[in-house]
Amino acid sequence: MARDPGPYRHQGGPGCHRSEAQRYIRPVDEVELSVHGIAKGGDGVARDPDGRVVFVRGALPGDHVLAQIVEERKRHAHAVVAQVLTPGLGRVEAPCRHVAPGGGGCDLQHAALGRQRALKVDILGDAMERNGHIGDVAISVAGGVSGVGYPTTQRWAGIDGRAGVRRNR
Question: Which of 10, 52, 61 is closest to 31 using CA atoms?
Fold first, then answer.
């Protein structure tokens, strides 16, 4: 007999690595957050009023946002930006129309090119320090003049005979 998720939203499919209890999450109200960092994958990092870490898709360090919590865990939560209340340094309108609905391959397009590169350096430097215990390394990011059109990986999906870019994650 199939379990009725009730007010919960399913977060996994056949073979999902999450336990049965973790597959169902409850949507939560919006919360105001001040973003102070950046995580791997381009999510902003903030803390909710209880001090729990919240990874916010579509947020940049320095942003003050209203965010919709989409997944809660004991030690952290995931959210998406519902509204930017005060933009951080280097925030711009994303050139890709698929960013807002959660398109993949468009991480950090809501940041100006110089800011994108600085954030990528921060992400890489943090990973090298925390995972490889390597500090004080000079890192630079090269790329196209426009900042778009040079993804390192593209994964396409097909639906009804039409090709398209996969959604984020």
Answer: 52
pLDDT (0 to 100) of residue 7: 43
Q: How far apart are CA 109 and CA 168, in angstroms?
A: 13
- Residue 44: per-residue pLDDT: 93
Instruction: Round to whole Å and give the CA distance between 51 and 128.
Output: 26
User: In Å, what is the CA distance from 95 to each residue of 66, 147, 148?
Assistant: 22, 10, 8
**What is d(CA 59, CA 62) in angstroms, rounded to the nearest whole number?**
9
Among residues 81, 76, 75, which one has the least CA distance to residue 33?
A: 81
Burial 21-52 (b: 16+ CB within 10 A, else e): eebbbeeeeebebbbebbeeebbbbbebeeee
For residue 119, what pLDDT is reported?
A: 86
Choose between 147 and 38: higher pLDDT.
38
Evaluate if residue 32 carries a pLDDT over 90. yes
**Residue 62: HSE in the Cβ half-sphere, 13 Å Cα cutoff:** 8
Q: How far apart are CA 160 and CA 141, in angstroms?
A: 38
φ, ψ at 79 (rounded to 5°): -145, 165
